[in-house]
């Protein structure tokens, strides 16, 4: 078992998200970096889509009450196993009684923790992800709390250490032009690209709110339509919102752009007051970037199995 | 003149959007028909109708060009066929602590509370789409005489089951949440339960009729 000693700022079970229920108003949920979920699982020979713990900010502590092979991915939140520094992109072995603790980082927000064989969770609506707003999925539909006991299969053998190269987290994000650029004031998209944006403190798993001294104010209204993670909406205030995994299924603000699928993971690490900027991308390059991530997973799986 | 267009939103969302923000009842019925014909394909992982559009999320993004055209053909072929819709009869306790805004709404509309209840429950609504919260259905259209803007100051906590109105819509809160709509009544139905199949009582296109319960104003 993994015992939660300190739950920290926010730690919850997530996977690559919940699909097939958006017409009922059910959001995707899931890890802000689904790629890190797959890597964390593949490092342990797990199926890639098992539930993992998404640690936000850090300041949490766990105790292994049984020996365990586990993996850490995402960003470096200065984690320690039994007092010794450990790093994302690696699998480790914990002895019974070992403590796993996360500090924080000024540059990063989220890390992912998987165990060999996966945590014992019941899928809800076909996913292990916690829907934090609607309170279902994951562990009793809520974030982890101190005192929680998380079950998993007994580890058979100690696995040898193994590491994988994780693609970089960047502060430059590629976007496709959105459908409402013609309705917004002329040049809005170009100004969006040319501005530097600051991540607002009001950002969360629903959306990353951006501010700038040159906002894109407007008075355009559009009919409510389906939206999804990666869509960039502009409310009348002109401060764009990059929708993330917990966003609502429909939205009524004009859509300026969409983040390419391969780059949505960058928002898993952008914290309040950090800066980011956007570059225009075309569909062909967006698909290529996604294919590159998939190829990375495939190559790692292959290399691991051949060794 | 074309009445709709299609475009790709992001990398895998096919959007079929009407060229108007306020579709006629006939256009709305055709959107439901389009939703159903899209559901017959296995190409999509999610199909989400909204006010004046349907968005279908492709399982395989490479097929987008085919589906941008195909979806328009399906729209053009879509007819206002009478498809099987469920009608839900929802017992609602109007007024008092269950509908704390009823008196205020009546005052603003220059009606008696009884007239408001009568008018709200006389009409059969249709689920235009769901959003905001799991199981939160936008029910259209509210009779013109009952239309009011949202409350200036939203409530921090609207109780689960509250029956509410705002602008040209009515709705029921499936769980307690903040909300800016006017609360007329409350019902005891479970609107969303993730352990059930399907998890939501209402689906897009369903009909809803409110029945005033004798515990409240009727």
TrEMBL record, chain A:
Keyword check for Acetylation: no
Swiss-Prot/TrEMBL keywords = ATP-binding, Hydrolase, Nucleotide-binding
Q: What class of enzyme is it?
A: hydrolase
Q: Which InterPro entries match?
A: CT_A_B, Cyclophilin-like_dom_sf, PxpC
Q: Which GO terms describe its molecular function?
A: 5-oxoprolinase (ATP-hydrolyzing) activity; ATP binding
This enzyme's EC code(s): 3.5.2.9
Record domain Carboxyltransferase: where? 23-296
Q: Coiled-coil segments, which residues? A: none
* Gene3D superfamilies from the UniProt entry: Cyclophilin-like
What domain of life does the UniProt record list for this protein's source?
Bacteria
One Pfam family per UniProt:
CT_A_B
Question: Is Electron transport among this UniProt entry's keywords?
Answer: no
Question: Which NCBIfam families does the UniProt entry name for this protein?
Answer: urea_amlyse_rel (TIGR00724)
Name listed for the protein in its UniProt record: 5-oxoprolinase subunit C
Question: What gene is it encoded by?
Answer: pxpC
UniProtKB/TrEMBL annotation, chain B:
The answer to whether the entry has keyword Transferase is no
GO molecular-function terms, A-Z: 5-oxoprolinase (ATP-hydrolyzing) activity; ATP binding
Query: If you read the UniProt record, what top EC class would you report for this enzyme, in one word?
Result: hydrolase
| EC identifiers of the protein | 3.5.2.9
Cross-referenced Gene3D superfamilies: Cyclophilin-like
Q: Which UniProt keywords apply?
A: ATP-binding, Hydrolase, Nucleotide-binding
The Carboxyltransferase domain sits at: 4-202
* A matching Pfam family: CT_C_D
Q: Which SMART domains match?
A: AHS1
Q: Does the keyword Nucleotide-binding apply?
A: yes
Superkingdom of the organism of origin: Bacteria
The record's section on NCBIfam families has: 5-oxoprolinase subunit PxpB (TIGR00370)
Task: Return the protein name.
Answer: 5-oxoprolinase subunit B
User: What is the organism of origin for this protein?
Assistant: Pseudoalteromonas holothuriae
